Amino acid sequence: NACLYVVATPIGNSADISLRALHVLALADAVACEDTRNTAQLMTRYGLHKTLLAAHQHNEHEVAEKIITRLQAGERIALVSDAGTPAVSDPGAIIVDAVRAAGLRVIPLPGASAALSALSVSGLINDQFYFLGFLPSKAGQRDAVLENLSSMPASMIFYEAPHRIIESTAALCKAFGAQRQVVFARELTKLFEEIHRCTLGEAADWLAQDTHREKGEYVVLVEGAKADADQNDQEARRVLNILLEELS
Ligand code: SAM
Questions:
Q1: Distance from the alpha carbon of residue 220 to the mean position of ligand 1, in angstroms
Q2: Which one-letter DSSP state was computed for residue 189?
Q3: Residue 248: how many CB atoms within 10 A of its CB?
Q4: Most Cβ neighbours (<10 Å): which of 6, 46, 105, 150?
Q5: In a structure prediction context, what are the per-residue pLDDT tens digits for the chain, which is 248 residues long?
């Protein structure tokens, strides 16, 4: 029975947890979590009380050893993050890898994911997507990453913090051009959920229309590059940007 269960938890609406996840959390001997206060609240909401093991960005290697010892003693451990699917732009991958390398079993419990929820309502018609997670916070690194993606045909999915949404959107427009479609999926599953699709050229105005839009959680999706004409356009824009930078 010893096993690490990687359990997805809600990204807002507390009803978005699976019956199986509740069952596993109820059976677990301990729950490894990103933030013990958040997870304690989550567990209380479902009437569960368990030993919580702090497993955050800074102690994953250390806690992985503790989890392995417990698993070897026959325990069942659940791993959760603050929201959504663990190990996706969240801690968890180091623990999973250590447990796997120790020859122990890891079982996923699928559930909420901000990226896939946003993709599912984006209306972007494309069976390929590229999930990038958070863009680098430094402007130079961010722009270099975007530059490399500008001719990619797959739809792109980004996570972004609200205090950077305006700046990042401007960077997306500069890298991909004003004609590309963008989808903002804000506060998914929560009271002020908003899903808005427009062109990158229209995006700054939409963000400026309501000050609430500088708050909340965002998934941003950008449509992929279209056929050749678009790519020629991208190339022209890239060269133009280089020339403009030389001039300034
Ligand atoms: N592991 C999570 C998942 O599976 O979706 C993602 C965790 S990551 C640290 C948090 C980021 O996910 C936020 O900054 C935001 O970009 C996105 N996110 C999480 N919840 C969201 C929600 N309810 N609505 C929109 N975006 C959300």
A1: 11
A2: T
A3: 5
A4: 6
A5: 789 999 999 999 999 999 999 999 999 999 999 999 999 999 999 999 999 999 998 999 999 999 999 999 999 999 999 999 999 999 999 999 999 999 999 999 999 999 999 999 999 998 899 999 999 999 999 999 999 999 999 999 999 999 999 999 999 999 999 999 999 999 999 999 999 999 999 999 999 999 999 999 999 999 999 876 556 667 778 888 888 888 87
Whole-model pTM? Answer: 0.90
Quote the tokens at residue 208: 């400026």
Q: Report residues whose beta carbon is within 6 angstroms of any ligand 1 atom.
A: 11-12, 81, 83-85, 88-90, 113-115, 159-161, 185-190, 217-219
Do the Cβ atoms of 54 and 33 come closer than 8 Å?
yes
Return the best residue to mutate from 33, 159, 160, 195 for the ligand 1 pocket (most ligand atoms within 8 A of CB): 159
- ipTM metric: 0.99
